[in-house]
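hi!! sorry for the late reply, been swamped w classes. u asked for the two structures so here they r. pasted raw, havent cleaned anything up. first the sequence of the first protein and right below it the tokens
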Amino acid sequence: MKKHSGLVIAVKLIFVLSLCLLLYSGFQILKAPAEARRALQDWEKKREKASIISLNEQETPLPAGMTVPPQAAKHSQTAYSEGEIIGEIYFPKLDKRIAILEGTQRPQLKKGAGHDIGSAPIGAAGNSVLAGHRDTVFRGIGDLKKDDLIEVETAEGTFIYSMSGSTIVDGDARGVIRQTSGAVLTLITCYPFAYAGPAPDRYLLSATLLRKEPVSLSPRP
């Protein structure tokens, strides 16, 4: 009787172990395609990131000569050094904040939007020009419409702009960004937004200054 019971237990144990092995093998078989898909998704993300980096290395959102330089630089605001972080730009509609650096060369545009050194300081009378890459810092600005607000904060205060319009110009055009008597903000990036390789055109967004607010000392939520 004891031998019979031991044999039954042994058979049951073998059955349980075989079942566990079968379930484990089935799980591994089902798991493999999911892991393979995940690996492909990871590669797609890395490839997209590499493509953006490569694309940004080739593109120049603000070509030389596109901005008409001011006849005289008589601005009272603080002069910034090239590469210095001078503030941030906030798009309420996009819920997006971007750092602003002085200069529009590759090192600055890798980190944020670049302020054209030859243009007016933010909030001052004249045309303040900010350049940025279409696939990173300025992604989504094509969704902005007339009267949408744009906030720019510097050490001088927070400047509230209202979008007045947009235009598309040839990337080889020169002198199309002109100086103004009033305080104007111009954002420029490459166009079309969805384009493989260096884009041939430039997208210009214009905004007029509505008001200036003091710098807030309270932390953001």
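now the second protein. again sequence first, tokens right under
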Amino acid sequence: MRSTFTRLLGGLACLFVPLACVDLLDLRLRGTVDVVVVDGTITNLAEPQIIRLNRSKAEPVTGRFGMRPITKATVEVVVDSSAVIACHETVDGSYQLPSDFKGQIGHAYQLRFTLADGTRYVSSQQVMADVPAIAAVEAKFNPRSLSPALDGFFTAGHDIFIDFTDPADKHNYYRWDWNLYEPQKWCRTCVSGFYSIFEPLDTIPIGFYKSGTKLYEECFYPPAIPGRPVSEYRLDYACRTQCWEILHSYSINVFDDQLTNGGPVSKRRVAQIPFYQSGPCLVELRQLSLTKDAYIYYKLFQDQTENTGGLADTPPTVLSGNVHNVANEKEAVIGYFTAAAVSKKSHYLDRKDTEGRSFGAMINPDPPKFDGEELFFALNRRKPSPEPPPPNDFRIFIDGTPRPPLAVCGPIDQRTPFKPPGWPD
């Protein structure tokens, strides 16, 4: 159930495949649609500043969209029309600015990138506006918070409301998103393989292994044993240390202060946190400033996804954003590059108000029994299948290495072993 706004991608990755925007592109010819997708927001926080480039392409027969990262591009951010900051590719399609870079309020930012084939793109200039602090947070349990049911199952959740004071000196535009930290018990799944802390070494007889001395910390996929049929199985390994799953907002929430300019904003709902498990969690709320044109873009997309039922549905039109092909203005480029100041506030949700509550509604009249594994089920749509203790039918270690092992908390982009700020001691 990870929503990967490839961050609007927990939502923007999913979000942009069939996107909608200011310049509307008719999708009746969607079998031939092949568009560049841009996701990038420069913030004033000391956090990774990442630009994501993908290509969304429809299959000629089905019209279904697929997303693949754009690699080996040259990506730059221009500050105040003068300083040029180069980005480096960290993983396929993700381009990060230097680790010490962060945006500054009142400064202007522009994205430029060149694809491997020489095609050049540039965004409009975005000036980072200030943002007021979040003053107060309130959470209320709502058994029908999520409608339609998230992933067809979860309806219950906590509605999160905030108070803040809107500045009176100018017209302001806002967007909210959130990161959710859920305690995680399971850290690795191996498909037709097994987890090993140290590098497994072949030995005799065939199919038996012993541990080497080189640190491995990965799933090991052994070759098939001659004469034995190959079967697919999944083995799940518990976490070796404390670990938190990191989940992201899956919808767009924007606001224009036209009717509240200069006054207090009270009880604004900014998040709907799914009821994944009965234990506590931590919500990191993010209040972002927007430029006017960025607000218009996100508002159109918000309206369209609400009308079509969610990010997974294909909207009737695609929205071109503020990035264009230098040599071909008519090319539709999806997504948006902007700059936003951010006010963060963490809220510890103890979930004591959920005692005896249901985890959701499922069309299945015989819902599964979770056995305390609600979060795992939400993420994987099944219960965990731990490696059975020896002796078992899986590959055996002959050197007395304890089985099953415990796995490290990772991958780091979706889990962390470090206590999130705001989690009580």
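hope this helps!! also noticed smth abt the second:
The chain has three helices and 28 strands.
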